[in-house]
């Protein structure tokens, strides 16, 4: 694979180690990075689980 090309991220998981994904998820969910980190620490990196928790 050529350098500089990004692989399509797995949108079913939230990767807190990737700045691009953190920016995507904070924008997509309308929350801060610290709130996102708290949710991932609490319930795991499943995007569906995080969305479910936010809808409560």
Characterize the structure shown.
The chain has 56 residues and is mainly alpha-helical. The chain has a domain at 19-54. The chain is built from three helices and no strands. It holds the Pfam family DUF3606. InterPro entries: DUF3606. This is DUF3606 domain-containing protein. It comes from Bradyrhizobium commune.
List keywords for this structure.
56 residues; mainly alpha; 3 helices; 54% helix; elongated; DUF3606 domain-containing protein; DUF3606
Give the DSSP E fraction (strand runs of 2 or more residues). under 5%
Q: Give the C-alpha Rg.
A: 12 Å
Which structural class is indicated by helix and strand composition? mainly alpha
End-to-end Cα distance, whole Å, is 42 Å
Mean pLDDT: 92
Shape: elongated
What is the string of helix and strand elements?
HHH
Which sheet architecture does the biggest sheet show? none
- Poorly predicted regions are none
Find the count of extended strands (DSSP E, 2+ residues).
0
The number of helices is 3
Helical coverage, percent range: 40-55%
Structure summary:
The protein is mainly α and 56 residues long. The chain is built from three helices and no strands.
Strand and helix layout:
Layout: H1 19-29, H2 33-43, H3 47-54
